[in-house]
Amino acid sequence: MSRDTRPRGGPAVPLGRGLLLRLLAVAALVSVCSIAATAWVVVRTTAVAIRQEQGKDLADDTKTYDVLVGYAARHRDWDEVGPTVAGLGRRTGHRIVLRDGDRTLADSAPVPGHPYVAAPKPTAVIDPLAVDPQLLPDAARDGGIDPRAVGPYRLTDAESSRLRETADGVVACLRTTTGDTARVVVGEGGRPTVETPDERPVDLRCEATVLNRPVPSEETALDTLDDLVDNCLERRGLTGVTMTIDGSWQTVQPQGRTSAAPAPRKDVRDCVASSRAEQLEPYVAPAAQLYVSSPGDRTANTFFDLSAPNKLRIAWGAALVLLVTVAVTAFAGLRLVRPLRRLTLAAQRMEAGDVSARVEVTGGDEIARLSAAFNAMSRRREQLESARKDMVSDVAHELRTPLSNIRGWLEAVEDGLVQPDEKLVASVLEEALLLQHVIDDLRDLSAADAGELRLTTERLSVADVLAQTAQGHGPLAEASGARLVVEADPELTVWADPVRLRQAVGNLVSNAVRHTPPGGTVLLRATGDQPGAARSGSPAAVTATAGVRIEVSDTGPGIAPEDLPHVFDRFWRAEKSRSRQTGGSGLGLSIVRKLIEAHGGTVEANSTPGVGSTFVLRLPSSELAA
């Protein structure tokens, strides 16, 4: 089967239609999904916002309740509560009304001429002696009495100051003895306490127990509470108790009441709670009703209630978004398809054999970068095609000469013009060897290009390699009148393939001998190399580590500066007219470069016209680099 490589001259294929339709379909699908998702999210968000608003209202109500309970716990009446209620109304945005039966005690947003009409049920009842446990859970653990209601247990300034000095001394003692960073906290009644990190007990050496003893004002209040609790228990036929400052009690047996039964904890708790409330009642404000409402007729609502008008509004919005999305996608798709169509036509031209096909690059997006990459690929293919044609021509030229000579001698023998003697056989053999040499060089280059050049590396003495190479090329140098000189440190070694390294050095030596006039010198030198010594402008720039530097220098005519960058190109000769016998095949230096690169090294050429040329091989000394 043969491929049809003719240019496509038929009807043009609509290259962009499929991509454009796919873009439109994807855009429409994305739009529909996004609209539906947006509507769902808005409805969900609105519901969440309503719940958050309800939670905020609850938090505001709790804050209002806490502030008013604290006010009642610290005051005997509601006479001065007006500013507090007004401030709460401003902070919460609600209307707050405090009433005592039919009498309004305070109103955060009064309406002149319109008395407040109370709801059937108040929002809460403000009573510091019967706190709502759901709004203030901490008070529920203290018999429903707000801890801010201290009444007769409030310390005088002198008592509080004296205990504060004691507490500061305990804190200083703890810092010195245990290193704890304790702090003094003053309670509602003016009594200071010492708090330690992680609520650890205070070290007994610091005499913190002094802070737990009641002061005179507290002893008076505790005696009154003892009497109230004992009377309550006595009415139940139970033994009295003695109250302590921390709220606990101890059972006592009153005189003349030997038959009284011990008081159960529940009964004691009930009596303590009722007695405390009775004791604190004169010191707190009376119970009042709290009403919290929104100002005016404001009601909460939401736009997305999914009613019929709102559904129609969502549908129209979705249709508009869909239309805009399709229009924008069509415009973007056309701009996207146009350069793709030009790129496809250029690729078809290249497929038909036009290696000069190029695409106009506009912009800096992905398609522009793709077009630039296509142009680079097209230029590279054009260069490779030109190199391929040149190489085929050079190979044909190199093989033609020995084959023509062999054919000429054989035809002369066949025609009886020449006798097949030893001289003829030697001449034909020489041409065959030259032909075999070209074929071997091409095979080595082909293996190197394909990455199939196998190396068997081992630790080599560089001096031995150079000596063996010089010995092998001694007859050639002697015949041309050149002198071979080797300079190398016997201790210098390198990891390399011995056969390939000798081949690379041998190619350089044969090239140097061929260009060295009679009486000249070819120098083989090996030294240690330093990192970074390679020239950045060398034709075969490959990064090499510190290793070995091998130089092959001659005293020939040198190479012109404009020819120096091409010395490692295949089939290149400084003098195009030279024959194979005088100029070689033009493959030796290319093979040298491939062999050294396979070892992980670099090769470069330096030359001064009229003085000579120097070829430098750099090889890494480590086994891994080789």
| C-alpha Rg (nearest Å) | 54 Å
Point out poorly predicted stretches. 1-16, 297-304, 532-545, 577-583
Global outline: elongated
Number of helices: 14
**Terminus-to-terminus distance:** 46 Å
What oligomeric assembly is this protein in?
Answer: single chain
List how many beta strands DSSP finds.
15
Main beta-sheet strand count, sense and barrel state: 5 strands, mixed
Structural category is alpha+beta
Helix content: 40-55%
- Helix and strand element order: HHEEEHHEEHEEHEHHHEHHEEHEEHHEE
Q: What's the pLDDT, averaged over the residues?
A: 78
Q: Going across the biggest sheet, name each strand in turn.
A: 10-12-13-15-14
Provide the β-strand percentage band: 5-15%
Q: How does this model look, in words?
A:
The protein is of the alpha+beta class and 626 residues long. It has 14 helices and 15 strands. The strands form five sheets. The protein has a five-stranded mixed β-sheet. A hairpin with a 2-residue loop joins strand 1 and strand 2. The N terminus is likely disordered.
